Amino acid sequence: MNLLPKSSREFGSAEYWEKFFQLRGKRAFEWYGSYLELCGVLHKYMKPREKVLVIGCGNSELSEQLYDVGYLDIVNIDISEVVIKQMKERNASRRPQMSFLKMDMTQMEFPDASFQVVLDKGTLDAVLTDEEEKTLHQVDRMLAEVGRVLQVGGRYLCISLAQAHILKKAVGHFSREGWMVRVHQVASSQDRVLEAEPRFSLPVFAFIMTKFRPVPGSALQIFELCAQEQGKPVRLESAERLAEAVRERQQYAWLCSQLYRKAGLGSVSLDLCDGDTGEPRYTLHVVDSPTVKPSRDNHFAIFIIPQGRETEWLFGMEEGRKQLAASAGFRRLITVALHRGQRYEGMDSIQAELSARVMELAPAGMPAQQQVPFLSVGGDIGVRTVQHQGCSPLSGSYVVEDVQGDDKHYFRRLIFLSNRNVVQSEARLLKDVSHRAQKKRKKDRRKQRADDTPEDLPAAPGRPVDKTYLCCEHHKAMIAGLALLRNPELLLARPHYNVVMFDVDSKDPTLGMSCPPPAFVDQPFLQKVKSILTPEGVFILNLVCRDLGLKDSVLTGLKEVFPLLYVRRIEGEVNEILFCQLRPEQKLATPEVLEMAQALEQTLRKPGRGWDDTYVLSDMLKTVKIV
User: pLDDT, tens digit, for every residue of 4-29?
Assistant: First the structure.
């Protein structure tokens, strides 16, 4: 039996609905959910003693269930004589105070200001099937009648899928009339999230249009969104921003339905925002591992990334997250990064906050009532302490923060908030020293205060900086390139520009080269570098270029000035370290380069000089090649 119309326009015709209810019989037809799914929102905006008009009631059980919980003053209207007859017969004895009337909602027969609530479940959606002039005129008459029969302070409560043209029409009409406009998302129950085939990919919304008394000359417009059933409404500045917020919720619901139906959608990430401020609070990445063999306990898990460690390769890069998911052994792993500027009480509070939301991202096939494990490194959420915040005219807002690493060392990091997942610079902080050593250091400092320089002072809040630490592989490779100097003792004398190093990022994201800025590899600038470099010296450059044509051009330009060019590529990164020299006859084979690296390391590892024992110069140069 086919109950669907040939075209959506038939939804607006009385003839279609007469035929529909004749064919369907007495079985209830529920648009957009049952009473149990809608009651949270309905009870929030309707009081039991209020007089309620239900337009386009159909044979839904909603009015009956409202009546049964205490809403006794309900009038129902519908354009279909068949359904009105059915509903009268069904309710005559059990619900004597509730009435059913055959009536056209575009020409209602009630006096002005007869009702405190007009309830519409899917009727506006059924009528507003397109944006043709005839359809819009019919909807204008319908909404005008809704406004006429409502008292001041009354509410038009419309349950809708909030498609763009419907939201635009409803919000536009009532905001022009000076009404308060609120859109409230109807919560989906846990059962519906996990059922075999969710009913709608689009979420259901309630429009709550509150009638205000007209104020001559007032242009006040109020737009609000409630994204959670029990959440606070958020005031928005315009109808356009409200439509954008609704669209974001629809996109999220569509994403959830896609993630439920199938795995392996590719890289999927989303931000969960604070309901009160709208600020991002969590960033989620969904990682599927199709090769993991399914079992009862390995469907789904959540991994909380400790604060400050979201920049590490394992957590911050797609390939790293895939490796993490595979090692965790779950079909789907969601990694959760915690945002700076947000307060977190601990793992238990994060789990309580996220449990309901992350279940919307669960895959199909999970056993009912199964507990979803929350994982982390060491079982805690890490430590992040902001030491300084500011704004640079070149790079915008930035933050300096101390974070705890995997080995319990603390690191001080500079982050530009325009690229918040990239560590711009990092220093390792030395561990706290003993009380006796601190007293001795203070005594020595008093004795030699006149000779101190700022770099000798301990870093606040009491932890000195480890000056032997290099945070990046490309920095280690750049330092290793100093082995190309034939006389490493030159490094220990006063600088005569035996070495020039560039590691400068570009501020223009549209370029295919993010390091260095193009001006740093222009011929006039390279000639200036050449002019200040000794004949045996080395110019070391960090190159980050994704545009292969542009990279070839840069290399060609460098070779015109520096005929001898070595390259050391950094595994897992786009960075390439270029070692540039002026004399081609200085070319060294790999064994010679490694021998010179060992000699340089011996020179630098003198007693009394700091050195990071994990750093071996010759290891950094094993893969160096001549361009």
Answer: 334 444 445 555 445 544 454 455 55
